[in-house]
Amino acid sequence: MKTKYPKFLFLSLLVMLALSCLAPLSAFTYPPEIEKATVEVYKTVGDVELKVWILTPEEHKAANPVPAIVFYFGGGWRGGSPEQFEEQAKYLAGRGMVAILVDYRVSSRHGTLANVCVSDAKSAIRWVRKNASRLGVDPDRIVAAGGSAGGHLAAAVATLPMYDEPGEDLSVGSVPNATALFNPATVLAPGPGLPEFPEGKLEDLKKRMGAKLETMSPYHNVKKGIVPTIIFHGANDTTVPYATAEVFYKKMKQSGNRCELVAYKGAGHGFFNHGRNNNKYYADTLARLDAFLVTLGYLDSLPEVDHLK
Prior knowledge:
single chain; 309 residues; alpha/beta; eight-stranded mixed sheet; two-stranded antiparallel sheet; 10 helices; 10 strands; 33% helix; globular
């Protein structure tokens, strides 16, 4: 089967793949140190300052706004680091987007539950939109992206009507214009026709969510008008089963929304991360994300080449 990829994208990803294979996989660090990023505080809660790391295209001028992509890290709403999506952010900044890596409150550092994570995720989108002119961002072309629990947050800001931070200016929207989800947690409550939860999983989710499960579950809040979405999921994922991605995808389509699901045979949870599997899946998911963003008009198309997969 032949799949078309932008020629420049394919060649650049091959170079990135070859170089990264020379270095061993290392854990993401916290707090992150991200080269060439501008760091700003997007939200203050008590004595906690929540930050974003902003990567911009070379010679980017605020007077010429471009699309933005906002990344949320994974970690079960308990931990994790904005560093997780550093390489994807750098690549997309090189392609012409403003790429933003978000920190948010998690249980291990702040004693919070997942409903607070959703509030922070919404605040981050609202902050980007409110500061769009200064950042050189088009407020009508903002993508929310994330993996695992971060994938839940990216889906949550697009679907959940609740959990806005009290006191924020709600006239500034917190719903993104598209989402990119990497093995996301989209089904967080039971329901007819849904995959059964493993023993003890529902009780665990009730402890982690801090709210009624249905109000935190993107699947249960899908309706017509949800923004265009692409999902990358490992078929062998045992942490967030692939079947949950399938039912979310089907409901999105049945509701009349644009949704694409890309399955990776044999891949488990976190397969897409930079440094995993010799970057095989990292490169492929990034190529497909690039192509998705081209279809939205968020990135310029590039010369294409047929590549045997």
